[in-house]
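Action item from last week, closing it out:
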Amino acid sequence: MCLITDSEIIVANAGDSRCIVVSKGKTENMSVDHKPDDELELKRIRSAGGAVIDGRVNGNLNLSRALGDHEYKASKNVKP
């Protein structure tokens, strides 16, 4: 997703989609993938009662923030 205003560009990615910009023939990432083995994501997953197995959330998802997949968001100890 990308929202362009007169003074800002606001971007977000969902699932395995990415946001990039191309300027003068060069590409630049404008969003960051949420990988399960990144330090902050791993901590967040573990605190929600999950695990990272072979680089995947609970051995299944290879991204740690996705739309849907409600079974991974069912922890009563973590706010939505």
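Closing note: The helical segments are 39-47.
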